[in-house]
């Protein structure tokens, strides 16, 4: 089976967020094998997809695994999967996926950019737990919980510099959210090409920091739209490794746009 490593939300190798992509000919192998492959690839997400019969609501079935667990929704690995399908000549234009979070679509443009249609996350204000502030080592302005398929806490910090210089206590963060913690702040200088910044920490899933989390932007889009009055923005996410996510808020749906580039294209020899 052909295994690709694709950097998502970037047009340059070794930037953005890398994802493993395995395109299967038939139904998904046993979950234990999928989890073993994801652990072996050892990236924040590995996507597995197989084609569906024509005439249905979706063209491909899609699942995502971290090295430690399956997740309900993943943006960067979906973008990587759409890129793999398009570059392999297996799909063009609009691609429909069925996943644990419902029907998702990804449209590949002529310039190679991929626009994904995801459900917009809800945002529920919650109290800022002192333990989270201590684990982050920063003063918190606000905290919001997100919808079930995401399960992150969106934590607003004072400014971009605070976000960039954050050095969390990952052991202390573990257990304080269902999935992860997304910290965010407005861009210091929007003329640089982005409107807000963020970083994502997921120690409970075996990922201390995820460079660019597409699904988190389904919560960041309404969060920053409520503060800016804008429905189209660009987010910069990451610490040492970064990527750009263009967002467009359309009520109950959020469009996420980015580039991708294949870095490794090889063969998986371990069969199910």
Automatic annotation (TrEMBL):
Organism: Streptomyces polychromogenes
The protein's name in its UniProt record: PhzF family phenazine biosynthesis protein
Superkingdom, natural source: Bacteria
Gene3D superfamilies xrefs: Diaminopimelate Epimerase, Chain A, domain 1
Family: Belongs to the PhzF family.
Keyword Isomerase: yes
Xref: InterPro entries: Phenazine_PhzF-like
Stored Pfam families: PhzC-PhzF
Keyword Isomerase tagged: yes
Keywords per UniProt: Isomerase
């Amino acid at each position: 089976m052909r295994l690709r490593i694709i950097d998502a939300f970037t047009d340059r190798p070794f930037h953005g967020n890398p994802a493993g992509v395995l395109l299967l000919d038939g139904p998904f192998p046993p979950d234990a094998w999928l989890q073993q492959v994801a652990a072996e690839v050892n990236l924040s997400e590995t996507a597995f997809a197989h084609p569906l019969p024509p005439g249905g609501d979706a063209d491909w079935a899609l699942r995502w695994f971290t090295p430690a667990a399956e997740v309900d929704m993943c943006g960067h690995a979906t973008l990587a999967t759409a890129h793999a399908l398009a570059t392999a000549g297996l799909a063009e234009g609009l691609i429909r996926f069925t996943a644990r979070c419902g029907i998702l679509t990804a449209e590949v443009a002529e310039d190679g950019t991929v626009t994904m249609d995801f459900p917009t996350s809800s945002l529920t204000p919650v109290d800022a737990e002192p333990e989270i502030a201590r684990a982050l080592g920063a003063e918190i302005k606000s905290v919001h919980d997100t919808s079930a398929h995401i399960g992150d806490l969106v934590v607003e910090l004072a400014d971009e510099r605070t976000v960039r210089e954050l050095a969390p206590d990952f052991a202390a963060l573990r257990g304080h959210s269902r999935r992860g913690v997304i910290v965010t702040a407005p861009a210091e200088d929007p003329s640089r090409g982005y409107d807000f910044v963020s970083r994502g920490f997921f120690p409970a899933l075996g990922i201390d920091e995820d460079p660019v989390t597409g699904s988190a932007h389904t919560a960041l889009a309404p969060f920053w739209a409520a503060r800016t009055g804008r429905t189209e923005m660009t987010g910069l996410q990451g610490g040492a490794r970064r990527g750009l996510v263009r967002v467009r808020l359309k009520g109950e749906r959020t469009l996420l746009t980015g580039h991708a580039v294949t870095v490794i294209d090889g063969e998986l020899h371990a069969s199910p």
